[in-house]
Amino acid sequence: MGGAVMSLPWEDEVVIGGLERDVAADRQLTHLGPLATSQYIRNTVYFDSHGVRCEAWFYEPSGATRAQFDLGKPPPIVIMAHGLGSQKDMGLHPYAEQFAASGLAVLVFDYRCFGGSDGWPRHEVNWRKHLEDWEAAVEWVVAGGLGTGRVDPARLGLWGVSYSGGHVLATAAALGLGRVRAVVANEPYLQAQAAVAKLLRERGAVSIARAMAAAVNDKVRGMLGLPPAYIKLVGRTGELALLQLNDEEWAQIQRPAPQRQGGWKNLATARMLLGAAAYSPLSACSGIKCPVLVVAGSRDEICPLELAAQAVERIGPQATLLARPHGHLELHRRGAEPEFIQPVIEFLQKQLGGVVVDAAPAGPLGHTTSVSQFG
Q: pTM for the whole thing?
């Protein structure tokens, strides 16, 4: 029995090992390097999270942008990270560059085990470690990690999407107003119970048992120091994957996936499924004291609008719900377009202060790249 669990000989959709960070290949990726435009400068920086080095992109408003927005003091800063199994070079740049061009400094980081960050096993999706990384990023900025006078850590905001949309809510509740002054939660993951019920309805008990067998296999392998067991991060209906997409959502996935930092593949450690049911950011919402903008899609079947409305109600009058006529992937893919990003920019400018609201950029900049969550 033990040997069968360890090898899962009947399961051809489990991938054993094979994911290593390819630093040499990263040197050939032109989208990872420093950027200097008339509106912002981007450099790579590093911070520590529980003894592991995390990589981030730091966006600074340029001298011209600082003059345009009358920034006579260090700018506010927005900290960003991606959602489930994704990393900073998968569609966050188009958002970050527009925030920076609007007078906001931005730090966009990779979780441990993803992208440019160290850590093993690669592609470990672990919500507890993600929250630790969020807190580590905040504390590093507050402690002056970016240098003296470059940002104002007393005016710090968080921006998350999907899984990290839940992370920023949980982080704001945990750290309080002393650290976090504003939050943008895009199509946030909120409640494990709702996610489990949806899985049972759509996949059935046999499919769930199949996924849990892979998760136990991976967990045991980790305990024995063996290479991890991976399953697909995203897949079509019926496939062994953390996230199954309907035909409409699947059509929006970029295929073949571009080469991403760290040798990203559409895989995640199966052990994630064992702890996922314990994570419900909705339960933390009543403890959030800062202003919050929740952006949700009326056609989102993954992180439904109804749960977003419950989050806003629990947070209280300092929270605002912005509903859009999109599904889950479409909302993120189109979120950096002018008509959709402008209200987010204005919210951050207003809540973090010190920026002239009516001077925000008109839309995507010349260096904007495509927005795609999974490749």
A: 0.92
